[in-house]
Amino acid sequence: MFIENVDSVPLTAVKVQVTGATYPLGTIPPGETRSIKTYPSSETSVTIQLANPDGQTPDSQATDSQATDSQATDSQATASEPITLDAGGYFEPGYRDTLKLQITRDTVVETHQNF
Questions:
Q1: Can you list the alpha helix ranges (DSSP code H) found in 19-93?
Q2: Residue 101: CB partners within 8 Å, gap ≥ 6?
Q3: Is beta strand 108-114 parallel, antiparallel or unpaired with respect to 83-91?
Q4: DSSP assignment, residue 40?
Q5: Positive or negative CA dihedral for 1, 12, 9, 81?
Q6: Mind listing the pLDDT tens digit for each residue in 43-82?
Q7: How much is the mean pLDDT over the chain?
Q8: Distance of CA 7 to CAs 49, 94, 107, Å?
Q9: What angle do CA 62, 65, 66 make, to 5 degrees?
Q10: Greater confidence, 58 or 21?
Q11: Which helix (H) or strand (E) covers residue 74, if one does?
Q12: Which residues, 6 or more positions from 18, have their beta carbon under 8 angstroms from its beta carbon?
């Protein structure tokens, strides 16, 4: 899997999630690409999490929601929550697909999946 930052700002605390595993990628500067091999435990799509402009990361969200019993749901994201992007795709264990994503802090701009 390749993830390219096509935004004008760095994407921080980037994580890739598939069923059964999360892969931290750290910061991706503008115009740069990170690659990662993923190993899902069952059928999966791909989700990308990253820090929002206020610096709220996926890790700090988990801590905050445990401490405050968060009132917002995934579909009701607020400015203080980390950003979650649904990158789609379809994988199963053993697939040898290549997924190429172009992302900004707001959206998945383009997705290519090669079988």
A1: 58-68
A2: 1, 2, 3, 4, 46, 48, 87, 108, 110, 111
A3: unpaired
A4: -
A5: positive
A6: 998 999 999 877 776 666 554 444 444 333 343 455 568 8
A7: 82
A8: 15, 32, 10
A9: 85
A10: 21
A11: none
A12: 38, 39, 40, 44, 45, 46, 47, 91
Strands 98-103 and 2-5: parallel
Radius of gyration of the chain (CA): 14
Q: List, as one string, the DSSP characters of 81-103.
A: SPEEEEEEEEE-TT---EEEEEE
Angle at 115 between CA 108 and CA 106, to 5 degrees: 5
Token pair for residue 68?
């405050």
The residues with which 26 forms a beta bridge, in sequence order, are 14
Question: With a threshold of 0.90, does the pTM exceed it?
Answer: no
Interatomic CA distance for residues 75 and 87, integer angstroms: 16
